[in-house]
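Office hours follow-up: a student asked to see two folded examples consecutively, so here they are.
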Amino acid sequence: MDRYLSGTQLARLLAIDPAARPYYRVLARTVRSLVLDGRLPVRVRMPAERHLAEALGVSRTTVTSAYDLLREQGYLESRQGAGSWTALPDAGSLGADNPWIAAVDDGLLPLHAAAPSAISSLPDAIAAAAGQYPRYTLGMGYDPVGIAPLRQAIAARYTARGVATRPEQILVTTGAQQAIHLVTAMLLSPGDPMLLESPTYPHVIGLARMRGARIVPVGVPDEGWRDLDLLTCAMRQSAARLAYVIPDFQNPTGHLMDDTARAALAAAARRYGTTLVVDESWGELAIDKGPEVTPLAAFDTDGRVITIGSASKLWWGGLRIGWIRTTAATVRHLAMLRASVDIASPLFEQLVVAGLFEDIEEARTERARLLGASRDVLAAELAARMPDWSFTLPAGGGSIWVRLSGPTATALADAAACQGVRLAPGQWFGVDGTLEGRLRLPFTHPPQVLVEAVRRIAEARIRGAYGTRPAEPLTPAL
């Protein structure tokens, strides 16, 4: 027999302040928190909207709105004539109100996003690209593998970093996300095991589920990948066809894999027949001085390491240009595969990025200075205002991975939104509703924005998960 709750029973569990506003959002948030901490089990039938409204003393419209919101977020499933049940959302899917896809200008400080502002050399690169653009109009206007100057620049950068690379080994894509999509479409069939770090880049979780993969999560140790036993054992036991890893300032933990671990990972992939998809989107964003690491592809001996890069982290989030480094034969295969998507990446943006590669070391220096200042301010503000939170200061990348002392990250994110800050709770980066005790805080924003954001987060904690004061308006300076 199905388990169910009456309106009176659920009302006792909720204990919502009658003055909370907007009430329907507080109601939905409270139900969600009960589900996440296990006090309201999954697959329990919820009371009818009319019955819950009577028990709470609110209008039926209010309860209907709350139920609608819970359905959008994946915490409620309904069937016409049969009622509604509690549920857990697909951890890789992004609900309608999730800030990763809700690209709306709602006035909230966007600490859910880790995209940096533009580098100072970008305007000059745009002007130079505009000067070159007319001569390209004499030709077809697109190249499925990418324009020659950009492929040459990317190949030269890999060679300079210790991995001999020819332009024929480079495929230019419309961002790193398209690159990941193309590789998984080529190599992954429904039911195939795919190894993912946990936490990891949220969109890859969604992509793996969309491809019908059997996800094999491997927890990233707090100290990083110093011991690869967890990773290699999972690779062997699952017979994973594909493994997606972020060895360079891992998103969101910030860990940097050393050369010894990289060599061991490549050897394990070779031993167990796994293809490594290596995301180097953050690879050029070292902040602290330290030994240079070698690209993981340098340890590849049989073409099973496929590397993905991006222009968006070093130069500007709005430059939707990425690339794939692999064998020349695989590049040709991927170029044919992408024809069903977009044929080629925008020419003008490719010209801009090709120009930016000419001064890449200056860009790295500038980005390290800016990110370092913001990172240190964020760490200091967290230590001062939330001393009970813990984190490891990353040597590069774009975010701090925080361990909370309470409340859960989702509840905190809801409370912080009431104070004018969007946050990225740990659940976004995990599989099956895990990592609720974590929070990713990016330091890709200016220091003054981070100071204000942390102040508002601290205010949200003081007011609790159900604070109702409206967010303060943002000033133009922010």
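And the second, which I mentioned at the end of office hours:
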Amino acid sequence: MRIVVALGGNALLRRGEPMTADNQRDNIRVATTQIAKIHPGNELVIAHGNGPQVGLLSLQAAAYTSVTPYPLDVLGAETEGMIGYMIEQELGNLLPFEVPFATLLTQVEVDGNDPAFQKPSKPIGPVYSKEDAERLAKEKGWAIAPDGDKFRRVVASPRPKRIFEIRPITWLLEKGTVVICAGGGGIPTLYDPSGTVLSGVEAVIDKDLCSALLAEELKCDLLVIATDVDAAYIDWGKPTQKAVAEAHPDELDRLGFAAGSMGPKVQAACEFARNTGKAAVIGSLADIEAIVKGTKGTRVSTARSGISYR
């Protein structure tokens, strides 16, 4: 099978965990241990989130006041290299030496008229108390939004339109390469009004929506959306919460999920299932092997109607 595995940024740096290189590497090691188990007989593409990482780089850049901080597209490119390096190294330590790896800086086109630019919604960086978040928003001109019982900075998250590097990704897969690409949803870019000059834009594309587009354009057999929970839940955090086992995308759409967390994952899974007729699964980073075997996670497919719960 050809599989896209989308690793959540919050799974690689867990919520509330100190954002250190060692913690990130430990979490990547959990992911790569699972990914190594599904490598035999499969073609693998690994995408990843970068919300905590790009937020941290943004804070570090802002602390150096002698120059203008780097924009989010440049910071996104930095995170693609940083996280891709760690994934390559940790997965390379587990697979045979002969297996080739490649991390691709991936530019993704967005629409400058996307309404997302008027309504920031993508959480980046660490979590804050309400008081700290409001103070930082005032000091730095940030938009902030609730994230569970905490608050985070939010930025524009336009929809991905086109993945520019889709051809080299395909060529590498055909040569047996494990490809790491579209990190953080890709580097957000757009054309000027003439349609001839491409440049970066201050935004963070949703990783799951970009991964769904990536999997569709690569004609993948399965999209795995790995996060820090084991399934998509209804009534999350309440005594009545239930994990969705399998669902038709139409049924899942009716349930309604939080826009800042599970919502984009569900949307991405539904879009991939509808557009391809193949399955997408949302589940825990630590359950990737079981997800591919079909025994864990929330499986979204048009192959059957209705919805079932675990």
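Two things to take away from it. The CA atoms of residues 79 and 168 lie 20 Å apart. The mean pLDDT is 91.
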